[in-house]
Every structure is written in structure tokens, then in C-alpha cells.
Design a protein that fits this description.
Distance between the termini: 19 Å
Number of strands: 4
Number of domains: 1
CATH architecture: 2-Layer Sandwich
Number of helices: 11
CATH topology: Alpha-Beta Plaits
Helix content: 40-55%
Length: about 200
């Protein structure tokens, strides 16, 4: 099932010169790059990108709580709360600072199950827990605890849409229809040749 996903190389990935390596990893899977641009989003743009619903705050907070539990560390001691919604709000404020600090590279990738493939390539949100070979597992040693002790967002190099609905929303947030290209890549040419 062909679909699109939104991928963003965050400022730490751009500044470390990882954009080409990230693109190569996506291209190697047969996904097709249909839009790309570099941007320097301000805090308002970043704040609008990340949701502000209690559901999102709770989801982000729960991930952090699980990360702390896995390490056997008291989250309340580090963050002065164990309420997932409050933790999520704090993390969003850190994300706004982090993403608006430098340039990002926004991309749209298209292909069979592009959203799931993107998440698989990117790896676990927390790089410390990401599988070796995933982008986060390869390029970032950060963890929830390190980030929270420094009162900052986790430097996890890359963002990937978490669902098809999220991808649709993120794509229209960053791109106009005229910035998205339709063409046949080499993987599609091979599949068409084999099918005929």
C-alpha cells in the first residue's frame, strides 16, 4: 500500500553532517523522496508542529516514565513530578527550544507502508534503547535521563511520523502541494519491468 510519511532531520543531525547518510538509508529501502527542503523554524512554527493535546502530552510523558522505570531511576526526583501530562508539557517546551536552535531538513518519503518503514529505520524514540543499525541507534547515544538531568530535549537526530494520520497532518504543515513531486524511481521501474 503506497503512502507518504514525513521525516525531519533535527538540528543536531544537520549540524553533524548526517543528512546524506539518512537519505541514503531511506533510499536503500526503495522508498522514494518526493519532497525536501531546509528550514530554520522559529519557536512559533515548532510549537504548532508538536500537538498540545492532553493525549499527546500523556503519551510523551508515559514514554519518559517507562524509560526511567527501565533504568530504575526515580523520575520524580529528576523532574519534580511523575504526572505524565506535566512531563509531556515540559518535554514539549524543551522540544521547541531544541528544534528552533538550528536548521532542519524536512522530507516526504513515499512507498509501500512508508510510515511503518520510516519508524523502523529511525528506531526507538530514546536512542539509548534504539536497536543497533537504526538511525537513532547508530547516530545518537542520548537517553531520557541524560536529557532530563540537563533540562533539555533528547537529541535523537531525526523525527518520523508515527501514523498515517500524523503523516498527513505533518506533510501539509511543512509542504505545499506544489513542492511535492511525482516521478518513477529505479525501484518502481524494476517492479514494473518484472510485473510485465
Amino acid at each position: 500500500m503506497t503512502e507518504r510519511t514525513f521525516i525531519m532531520v533535527k538540528p543536531d543531525g544537520v549540524m553533524r553532517g548526517l543528512v546524506g547518510k539518512i537519505i541514503k538509508k531511506f533510499e536503500n529501502t526503495g522508498l522514494k523522496l518526493v519532497a525536501i527542503k531546509m528550514a530554520r523554524p522559529n519557536e512559533k512554527k515548532v510549537a504548532g508542529f508538536y500537538p498540545s493535546s492532553n493525549e499527546w502530552f500523556s503519551s510523551v510523558g508515559e514514554k519518559t516514565l517507562k524509560g526511567y522505570q527501565k533504568l530504575g531511576v526515580d523520575v520524580k526526583k529528576d523532574l519534580n513530578t511523575d504526572d505524565p501530562i506535566e512531563i509531556g508539557k515540559t518535554i514539549k517546551s524543551w522540544l521547541i527550544k531544541y528544534i528552533s536552535k538550528g536548521p532542519v531538513v524536512a522530507m516526504i518519503w513515499e512507498g509501500n507502508k512508508a510510515v511503518k518503514m520510516g519508524r523502523k529505520l529511525v528506531g526507538n524514540t530514546e536512542p539509548f534503547s534504539a536497536e543497533p543499525g537504526t538511525l537513532r541507534g547508530t547516530f545518537s547515544p542520548d537517553s531520557y535521563q541524560c536529557a532530563n538531568l540537563d533540562f533539555r530535549s533528547m537529541f535523537n537526530t531525526i523525527h518520523a511520523s508515527g501514523s498515517t494520520n500524523e503523516a498527513k497532518e505533518e506533510i501539509v504543515y511543512w509542504f505545499s502541494e506544489s513542492e511535492i513531486f511525482d516521478y518513477q524511481n529505479s525501484a518502481e521501474m524494476v517492479w514494473d519491468f518484472i510485473k510485465s
